[in-house]
């Protein structure tokens, strides 16, 4: 099952209607290798003659985030589809999404990172703080862009 099929099935299973904007955003996230902003999504949808305002898109993305179907990439303020391989794992792994972000082409790869629950517990205890989530984004150059930059020198 690919991401689009999985996401639509999960939405239906959680009693969400599959509206045209919802379906198109899921398909758009599935196709994209880089983080897309809600404004880029709106422009794409409008280009396909699908009326969707930014507020609607933010609501769809919020729903997808709650269901662990999409993630916000803080470096670019955009969203990516959740990696299907991580989706099928246990809870601790679901929480440990880390991102490799290309600063040149904006490609985003979600990678499984270390389970940081022990570190979270230690920090939370030391500071009497409730940690709800964490984000780790590694920003650099992907293989393709690194090769391109090397050829230009």
From the structure above, extract its key features:
153 residues; alpha+beta; Arc Repressor Mutant, subunit A; 3-stranded mixed sheet; two-stranded antiparallel sheet; 8 helices; 49% helix
Helix/strand order: HHHHEEHHEEHEH
Count up the helices: 8
Largest sheet: 3 strands, mixed
CATH architecture: Orthogonal Bundle
Proportion of helical residues? 40-55%
Per DSSP E runs of 2 or more residues, the count of β-strands stands at 5
Low-confidence stretches: 88-95
- Gyration radius, rounded: 17 Å
**Fraction in beta strands:** 15-25%
**CATH class label:** Mainly Alpha
Bulk shape = globular
Q: Please, what is the average pLDDT?
A: 88
Secondary-structure-derived class: alpha+beta
Instruction: Tell me the domain tally.
Output: 1
Give the CATH topology: Arc Repressor Mutant, subunit A
Main sheet strand line-up:
4-3-5
Amino- and carboxy-terminal Cα gap = 43 Å
CATH superfamily annotation = Winged helix-like DNA-binding domain superfamily/Winged helix DNA-binding domain
Can you tell me about this structure?
This protein has one domain (3-152): Orthogonal Bundle (Arc Repressor Mutant, subunit A), CATH 1.10.10. It is 49% helix and 16% strand. The chain has helices at 3-13, 20-31, 38-47, 54-66, 84-87, 91-94, 117-127, 143-152; strands spanning 70-73, 78-81, 97-102, 108-112, 136-140. Strands 4-3-5 form a 3-stranded mixed beta sheet, with no helix packed on it. It has a two-stranded antiparallel ribbon with strand order 1-2. A hairpin with a 4-residue loop joins strand 1 and strand 2 (78-81). It is globular. It starts with a helix and ends with a helix.
């Amino acid at each position: 099952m690919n991401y689009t099929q999985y996401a639509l099935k999960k939405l239906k299973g959680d009693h969400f209607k599959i509206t045209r904007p919802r379906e198109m955003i899921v398909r758009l996230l599935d196709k994209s290798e880089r983080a897309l902003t809600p404004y880029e999504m709106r422009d794409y949808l409008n280009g396909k003659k699908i009326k969707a305002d930014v507020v609607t898109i933010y609501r769809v993305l919020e729903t997808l985030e709650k269901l662990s179907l999409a993630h916000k990439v803080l470096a670019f303020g955009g969203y990516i589809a959740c990696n299907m391989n991580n989706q099928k794992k246990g809870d601790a792994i679901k929480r440990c999404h880390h991102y490799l972000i290309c600063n040149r082409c904006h490609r985003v790869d979600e990678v499984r990172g270390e389970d940081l629950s022990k570190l979270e517990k230690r920090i939370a205890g030391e500071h009497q703080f409730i940690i709800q989530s964490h984000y780790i984004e590694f920003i650099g150059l992907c293989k393709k862009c690194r090769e391109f930059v090397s050829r230009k020198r």
